[in-house]
Amino acid sequence: MASLTAARSKFSVWARGSACGIVHFLSSRTFCSKGAIAGKNIEQAVYQETLLSNPPLLPEIVLNLITPDCRLWWSKVEATNTWFADPFWAFCWPGGQALSRYILDNQKVVKGKNIYDVGSGSGVCGIAACMAGAAHVKAFDIDPVACKIVELNATANKVDMEVTCQNILQETPDKDPPNVILLGDMFYDEALALQMCHWLKCQLENPQPPMVLIGDPGRWAFCHSTHPFNFRCVAKYLLPPTCKEENNGFVHSFVWEQWESILPQEIMTMNVEIHHMTKKASAKVGQCLRQALPSWV
Amino acid sequence: MALRVLVGCKRVIDYAVRIRVKPDKTGVVTDGIKHSMNPFDEIAVEEAVRMKEKKIASEVIAVSCGPMQSQETLRTALAMGVDRGIHVDVSGKDYELLQPIHVSKILAKIAQEEKCDIILLGKQAIDDDSNQTAQMTASLLNWPQATYASKIEKTNGELQVLREIDGGLETVRVKIPAVISADLRLNEPRYATLPNIMKAKKKPIKKVTPGDLGVETDPRIEILSVEDPPERQAGIKVEDVDTLIAKLKEVGRI
Ligand SMILES: C[S@@+](CC[C@H](N)C(=O)[O-])C[C@H]1O[C@@H](n2cnc3c(N)ncnc32)[C@H](O)[C@@H]1O
Asked: What is the mean predicted confidence (pLDDT) over B163-179?
């Protein structure tokens, strides 16, 4: 497994330029579309349908992603392979990309801390936290395929993290809560956003409440949720063209953190536009986000 | 100030399908026929999404009036970048006799309820070719209208619209709120790819009935008969220009 990933890693470095040919070559292999969420089958399917590539905002991270060079990107119909029915993990969502960029550029936010990446998808935020020196990272995703992918992606990035399929939103808060909760693009669905806000509220009632960091491009459910506390915007990134194509209607992605947290001292820029929000310019989320957004977006 | 845009999208028989009239002449065959979004509405949706990407619009809402399947049309709009959808449920006989006046009333009501600043519609639907909805919606709301738009620009608080008219192009300026209808050359709609289709499945669609909106959809017309256009007669081939002239004289064309 490790050698397979390593080989692919090298492969994809030069493959990116002529990826069409590679995909064609890969799709000539056969694979079985049924079977357990473990072992060779899923790896082979992932190998066949995705490319190990860098999310546009994250040149230091590689993930198994469906890119414009992959067959599925262009398919209108649902994938017949059950692993690829709604493959949320096969895309690095703009919220997750912004949050990961922010973590990598502001490592002290996670350094030495216990981290939960809730709704990990590809595992991108958790991987960024590991790279930034988190003490322990636990990724949560209710999709068993996503959990398997997180393992593959962690290995590809040579980091160690715990992955679980348990639905943490339905559990009572841990006695031993994390220091930081990462939410990469978890407000894409109205019902889930509602559940998430309720869960966050419980977390924050803990005597030692965690810090919450949210990455979101301005999704409707995020802007219209009644959040349990105020957030402020700590980073704004311009989405690179490929990321924009994947997210029709969005041009930026934002990172939000709890109002009380300390502002990061330094923010590095890497081909991205980052607006360091001052206290004056930052927006309060909650009921007033809608009015507040246009003033600085 | 960022604006809220309402776009209309009608589910119609796909433009590439050969239309067949029902044997009883009450309408055209729709069962099992491929449907898609009215192409002019696709252009309107594209323009609204571009307004959002240019930060002219803060939110784009799509509306479709029709049976359950209209939600598929809304999903296409959502995949193109619209934020949320409203499905106005009209089906069966009611839908067959739904007229632009009804749709205009529905759109006007929704625009008011949702506090929209711009209504963007296709200039006409390719199934009934009515070309009335935008005009009537503007009239019901008493908003200015700019129809057959081939270019829309925002200039402080107003919209400058290039219109396609018979003699060429006309530039008009309208105050906001306004109703705009899209012509063919306004833009080229984007193709919805998997990542966008996937995300669109999770975007909210609210279902309402015309009754919820306080709009009556009682039919105002009665369809007497739907017929195929007369078949074109086969032509003839002529040997040379002289015979052509002779033939044209014979049939009284010259
Ligand atoms: C929009 S994706 C975000 C993935 C990743 N954080 C990123 O930004 O690229 C959301 C993920 O959350 C997962 N999810 C949905 N509900 C969940 C829940 N209750 N607990 C944990 N994960 C959940 C989905 O399976 C999906 O993989």
From this structure: 96
On whether both A139 and A198 belong to a single domain, the answer is yes
Strand pairing category for B57-66 and B84-89:
parallel
Whether A297 is covered by a domain: the verdict is: no
Please, what's the b/e burial string for B206-233 (b: 16 or more CB within 10 A of its CB; e: otherwise)?
eebebeebebebeeeeeeeeeeeeeeee
For residue A194, CA distances in Å to A49, A67, A225, B112, B212 come to 33, 31, 7, 27, 25
Identify whether the C-beta of residue A91 lies closer than 8 Å to the C-beta of residue A122.
yes
Is the ipTM, as predicted for this complex, more than 0.90?
Answer: no
Residue A82 has pLDDT above 80, yes or no: no
| Cα–Cα nearest to A161, from A169, A145, A150 | A150
Boundary-marking domain end, from A41, A67, A90:
A90
Give the list of residues 6+ apart from residue A277 with CB closer than 8 angstroms, or none.
Answer: A232, A233, A234, A235, A236, A296
Q: Are residues A61 and A149 in the same domain?
A: no
Nearest ligand 1 atom to the CA of A167 is: 20
Instruction: For residues A143 and A108, give the distance between their C-alpha atoms in angstroms, rounded to a whole number.
Output: 30
Cα gap B153→A272, rounded to integer Å: 28
Q: Are A87 and B52 a contacting pair at CB < 8 A?
A: no
| Residue A64, domain extent | 4-90
Nearest CA in chain A to B45: A249
Domain-embedded: residue A125: yes
* d(CA A121, ligand 1 centre) in Å: 5
Which residues in A lie closer than 8 A to residue B117 (C-beta atoms)?
none
**Per-residue pLDDT tens over the stretch A100-154:** 999 999 999 999 999 999 999 999 999 999 999 999 999 999 999 999 999 999 9
- Least Cα distance to A238 among A217, A268, A262 occurs for A217
For residue B84, the surrounding DSSP H or E stretch is strand B84-89
The secondary structure of residue A108, as a DSSP letter, is G
Q: Which amino acid makes up residue B208?
A: V
Domain boundaries, chain B: 3-250
Which residue's alpha carbon is nearest to atom 24 within ligand 1? Answer: A119
The domain that holds A247 is classified in CATH as 3.40.50.150
The CATH code for residues B3-250 is 3.40.50.620
Is residue B40 within 8 Å of residue B122, measured between CB atoms? yes
Instruction: Return the structure tokens found at B6.
Output: 């309402």
Question: Is A210 in the same domain as A261?
Answer: yes
Q: Which of A90, A105, A139 is the last residue of a domain?
A: A90
A77 and A99 within one domain: no
B63-91 as b/e: b if 16+ CB within 10 A: bbbbbeebbebbbbbbbbbbbbbbbbbbe
